[in-house]
Amino acid sequence: MRRIRQSFEEQMEKLEQRLLEMGAFVEDMLEKAVRALTEHDVELAREVISADDTADEMDLEIEQDCMRLLALQQPMARDLRTIGTVMKVIADVERIGDYSVDIARTAIRLAEITYFKPLVDIPQMAKIVRGMLERALEALVHHDLQLVHQVIEEDEQVDQMWSRLLEEIEEIMQKHPEVVPQAASLLLVARYLERIADHVVNVAERVDYMETGELTVLAPSHRSDYDTASPDDSAPQAQ
Fold this sequence. Notes:
By secondary structure, the protein is mainly α. It has a single domain (2-230), classed as Phosphate transport system protein phou homolog 2, domain 2 (Methane Monooxygenase Hydroxylase, Chain G, domain 1, Up-down Bundle), CATH 1.20.58. 82% of the residues lie in helices and 0% in strands. The longest helix has 38 residues, at 2-39. It is globular and about 65 Å long.
């Protein structure tokens, strides 16, 4: 029995390591996508788009590993929460990869255009979001709830940056109609980054659930959506 348990724990460690690898891969996609946008680098943007297939393969392989562990091992309650968390997390990480591809496509579309203002806010947002992703995955592997709450705090910062940038760009579009097409595209990129931060918050909240057994909405900006959800939308708490 001890050998079976040891084998299971080793497989869980490998699963978490693969999740970290997927997270690092997707984080790199995001960094390259934003750099391609900033530097008008079409080839780098195409590299990001091509990388999406690899991210999808990682997602599928990790999901299959999770299903194999559930089928062949005898996981206890905490193990089930961990495996369930990993399956939820890879879905969010894969979605971050999709948003990175969207940013890369925007970079290609705007490659020949001179921006109406230097891109400062978007790279800053991306840097914060990438750090959030790193910390959320570290929190999962190291069972660190302090990192979870740091991610939640950083999400509020991203939300504030998004609100300021939205107000600023809307004002620019009103005063300078000629820049509306590129301004709208850049605004959409900022919105992608804000949504990526939301997906990272999902990861952090699942880590909190894994550790506490209670599924709680931690981010203030998410609570209103949760409060207005129907009972069927709410996941039951672990017993």
